[in-house]
Amino acid sequence: MIDEERVVLESVRYAAPPPMIKVKGSHREIGQQIGEAFAEQIQRSVQNARALLDQTYDTLELTWEGAEIQARKYIPFAQERYPQYVDELVGMAEGAGVGFEDLAVVNAMEAVTMDALHLTKCTSLAVNGDCTADGHVLVAHNEDWLPEDERGVYIVQAAPDDEPPWLAMTYGGLLPNIGFNACGIAQCCDSVYPNDSRIGIPRVIVSRAVLSARTLSDAMRSALVSKRAAGYNHLLVHETGELYSVEVSARRFAILYGEEGSIVHTNHYLDAKMQAIEDDSDELISTRLRYFRARRLLKRTELHSIKSLQQIQRDHLNYPNSICNHSMTHVDPLDREKTICALIMDLTARAMHVAWGNPCANQYHTYYLD
């Protein structure tokens, strides 16, 4: 048995909520506003990415200059299909005073490292009005990533000139993609590891496009855009209570429906034809444990609430590789990660409840989409 009290006491605590900015205008203007407001976080994320490549050189044999060369291969595909999101990155770089090439590496890190960053501990789940006490549609996500980037978490509320307004969480120099928009569509992204990856549109830019969807079919089309480099699992939820997992690779996809009012996804493929192209599936043990654990915990409660989902997000079964994931300092840098934030989206109330850092040790703060 783990000592829950010790785990909580040893976790990083944040007295303040994650910072938020409201932005509007063209995509370049939105990027500039984000870059100016969070220059310190963006600059630090570039430094963290450089340090990671330095620490893992013996394994990856990849320098920062080499990563920039690799990232340049992906940007033309993004520019051809989604020039507006390349403009957002250009604006962020300008506002934060960093090079665009640096942000290109940060946003294509999974691709340029050939998925050697096996960060496999994110957990996403959702319940619709059939399974909640107040009839609300709730979506929960634990974002697990490098501990060094935890300080860079922030919230963006955006009103682009040509897209629905949206509210999303991000960190450092990454384009926002975990959130929901004014059309009642929410997205959570879970890393998966196909063996058919190729040079194409980076995952982060694909998922940023999903956030702009006006309908569920638009969201799915964006997730399945041609010439994509690889894929996430996109857990997509509509305010009416429709629940989907769209499992994506570079060339294949599967659409799974949330039966009986709930859905769970972690970091492995659930569809049989997607499992056939999963890379290193034998190594992805903790993701399966978290998946079954989250499903069991969901079934324990007949009618859920924000508080009941928060309890699931704090779960420590299989610690430290638990739903509430904790960093272990002795672990290989390629596998070292923790829950840097946990969030619950209430699509009915247009609200996002965010715990900065491990949810077992930090309180949730509420943000609304105006």
Q: What's this model, at a glance?
A:
The protein is of the alpha+beta class. It has 13 helices and 14 strands.
Short descriptors:
single chain; about 375 residues; alpha+beta; Penicillin V Acylase, Chain A; 8-stranded mixed beta sheet; about 35% helix
What does the model show?
This protein is α+β, with helices and mostly antiparallel strands and 370 residues long. The protein has one domain (4-15, 115-368): Penicillin V Acylase, Chain A. The protein is built from 13 helices and 14 strands. The strands form 2 sheets. Strands 1-4-5-6-7-8-9-10 form an 8-stranded mixed beta sheet. It has a 6-stranded antiparallel beta sheet with strand order 11-2-3-12-13-14, with helices on one face. Helix 2 packs parallel to helix 6 (83-96), helix 5 (64-81) crosses helix 7 and helix 9 (203-210) packs antiparallel against helix 10 (216-223). The longest helix is centred in the N-terminal third of the chain and has 18 residues, at 64-81.
